Amino acid sequence: MLYNCALNPLSAVLDVPYGALAANGFTKGLMNGIVEEIFAVMAASGYQTHWVTPGEFLTVFYGKLVPDTAEHKSSTLQDILAHKKTEIDALNGAVIKMAAEHQIAVPYNTAIYSVVKFLEAKYSPCKVPY
After folding, report:
1. pLDDT tens per residue, range 77-128
2. pTM score of the predicted model
3. In what helix (H) or strand (E) does residue 30 lie, and over which residues does it extend?
4. Which of 25, 49, 74, 102 sits most deeply, having the most CB atoms within 10 A of its CB?
5. Domain covering 2-123 assigned CATH 1.10.1040.10 in the classification
6. Which residues contact 129 (CB under 8 A, 6 or more apart)?
């Protein structure tokens, strides 16, 4: 969840592989913000992960997880290019929903979710108004 929420929507919006996202300070800042928000929502919701802090996860994320998949483009991008509904509702959308239950602001997750939803509508074969 942490990995996919941080990488998939940005890869889709920017049409780049995961490694490009981790190599750029601007997108790295966005991914850090997404991860930090998810940790806050997880804590408020009573969930735990293998990592106690966002920093612990981000060390593994940038040091191991992203390098191993640096050339991958996200399934979210593949769905948009194929004019299919993406998994954004199950990823960042789920974070947003849980955050609302605990009255936690998640501006990074909300912003990237909104941009992906715009792209879904723009490229939808149903011509959903955007």
Report:
1. 999 999 999 999 999 999 999 999 999 999 999 999 999 999 999 877 655 5
2. 0.93
3. helix 25-45
4. 74
5. yes
6. 121
Nearest alpha carbon to residue 96 among 117, 119, 120, 74? 117
Q: Which two tokens stand for residue 109?
A: 């997750």
Domain ranges of the chain: 2-123
> Would residue 21 be called left, alpha or beta, if left means φ above 0 and alpha means ψ between -120 and 50 degrees?
alpha
Residue that the structure tokens 């969840």 belong to: 1
One-letter-per-residue 3-state SS of 77-130:
HHHHHCCCCCCCCCCHHHHHHHHHHCCCCCHHHHHHHHHHHHHHHHHCCCCCCC
The helix-helix angle for 25-45 and 2-14 (nearest 10°) equals 140
